[in-house]
Design a protein that fits this description.
With 450 residues, the protein is α/β, with parallel strands linked by helices. It is built from 18 helices and twelve strands. The protein binds NADPH dihydro-nicotinamide-adenine-dinucleotide phosphate.
Length: 450
């Protein structure tokens, strides 16, 4: 690593020593941009990296609400407005009990690079709360969302900061958040949130976009490496949420056989191929547990999760798609996947692969689609939703899907171009970091010391 990069990494570690996820994300980016930093010695004089790893602003706030028993609960809310370099802050809201400042900062940092890769004018942000939406009634969810938005509204706006969904925040939550925003502002600012319902300004294909985009990226990656295809490949997908469900749908449309999906408690293995209608019924309608799949398909198997290694990665597969959460694919799991002959990994979740597992995949020549490129379809389609809101116009599903496909193909091509230009073979993770950093660094240099 060059001396400037090393200095910034050490300073970042010292300043943020209690934020492991954030440091992991910064380390991952800084360790792959050496060629560009060496090509541009002027970056050090303008403290470009120091500014890139420091959020423009972090907002943390109290979220008091009353549960159905009449008890007062206090959660903590966050919005990390990391970078407005190339557009308004943009990134989802996560409601999960694991949420803390480190996780918010890592997600917002990743988002800057991801958004730059889309080629669209969007900056990087992320937010959320340590509120756990599991087993809450609709009314509790609504009261929480209203309280959360009562504070958040003063910090966001369609040209300032545009949140969307993430873990625990789907169409229902976005609806309640939007309703409260509109009520307080007394104006219809459609573009202030994305992932909205179709009846009030949402975009067709937004719900499908992250999962579909992941499969479009995977298709391009397989094609570029020995002209392989997704058809007839066996696929396992962790998670059973928004990203996992629509990755499954597109993989099946492309002729793959998806044999396993999971949630935080365990995974189901259906050797005949997952029935996605059943998963949608359990997860999107009933909001139940994946184990209930066995009630509909008794021939499937359920593997309970016993420790940090999800049982899904012990199942033999050609393509593994981690689509649940950060650091869910460990070194142990990576070894199992490689021993079982995996050929490609596609990150649907953000930073789902630990650093050690990632290195093992790269050293074993396993094709690797990195999150910040491969799951960028969601935010890209959010930007398309913002455009439709500004134009007061709706595009058809096919129009949006076509744009998504083009964007994902372009993202893959820029990862490939940068990886090849800097002699990194098919290390698309490094290619993604270099491509995004190149664009961001030039914008930062042009805008002066801000
Ligand atoms: P959802 O809330 O819809 O689904 C999350 C899924 O992951 C659920 O099945 C959940 O299971 C599982 N999960 C959550 N925590 C854990 C855990 N600790 N271990 C194992 N499984 C877990 O979220 P999304 O599908 O929207 O998001 C999934 C990932 O994709 C996240 O990393 C998110 O940041 C990323 N992402 C999402 C985008 C989007 O458009 N939605 C865009 C880009 C990235 P359970 O129900 O048991 O908790």
């Amino acid at each position: 690593m060059n001396s400037y990069l090393e200095k910034v990494l050490n300073e970042t570690k010292n300043k943020n020593c209690n934020e492991p996820e954030f440091l992991q994300a910064v380390n991952e980016v800084l360790s792959s941009i050496k060629p560009l930093v060496e090509k541009h010695p002027e970056y050090e004089k303008i403290a470009l990296l120091e500014r890139m790893v420091e959020p423009e602003r972090i907002i943390s706030f109290r979220v008091p609400w009353v549960n159905d028993k009449g008890e007062v609960i206090v959660n903590r809310g966050y919005r990390v407005q990391f970078s407005s370099l190339i557009g308004p802050y943009k990134g989802g809201l996560r409601f999960d009990k694991s949420v803390n400042q480190s996780i918010m900062k890592f997600l917002a940092f990743e988002q800057i690079f991801k958004n730059a890769l889309t080629g669209l004018p969007i900056g990087g942000g992320k937010g959320g709360s340590d509120f756990d939406p599991k087993e809450k009634s609709d009314n509790e969810i609504m009261r929480f969302c209203q309280s959360f938005m009562t504070e958040l509204q003063r910090h966001i706006g369609q040209d300032v900061d545009v949140p969307a969904g993430d873990i625990g925040v789907g169409a229902r939550e976005i609806g309640y958040l939007f309703g409260q925003y509109k009520r307080i502002k007394d104006a219809y600012e459609g573009g202030v949130l994305t992932g909205k319902g179709l009846s009030y300004g949402g975009s067709l294909a937004r719900k499908e976009a992250t999962g579909y985009g992941l499969i479009y990226f995977m298709r391009e990656m397989l094609k570029a490496n020995g002209n392989q295809s997704i058809e007839d490949k066996t696929v396992t997908i962790s998670g059973a949420g928004n990203v996992a469900i629509y990755a499954c749908e597109k993989a099946q449309q492309f002729g793959a056989k998806v044999v396993a999906m999971s949630d935080s408690q365990g995974c189901i293995y259906d050797k005949d191929g997952i029935n996605l209608d059943t998963i949608k019924q359990i997860k999107e309608v009933k909001r139940g547990r994946i184990k209930e799949y066995l009630e509909y398909h008794p021939n499937a198997e359920y593997l309970q999760r016993e420790n940090e290694d999800s049982p899904i990665w012990t199942i033999k597969t050609d393509i593994a798609l981690p689509c649940a959460t950060q650091n869910e694919l460990t070194l142990n799991s990576a070894k199992k996947l490689i021993n079982n002959g995996v050929i490609a990994i596609g990150e649907g979740a953000n930073m789902p692969t630990t650093q050690e597992a990632f290195e093992l995949f790269i050293n074993n020549n396993i094709l690797f689609a990195p999150a910040k490129a491969a799951n960028a379809g969601g935010v890209a389609t959010s930007a398309i939703e913002m455009s439709q809101n500004s134009m007061r116009y709706y595009m058809t599903f096919e129009e949006v899907d076509k744009k998504l496909e083009t964007i994902m193909t372009n993202i893959f091509n820029s990862c490939k171009k940068y990886a090849e230009e800097y002699k990194l073979g098919n290390n698309y993770a490094a290619g993604a970091n270099l491509a995004a950093f190149d664009k961001l660094a030039e914008a930062m240099k042009a805008q002066g010391i801000v």
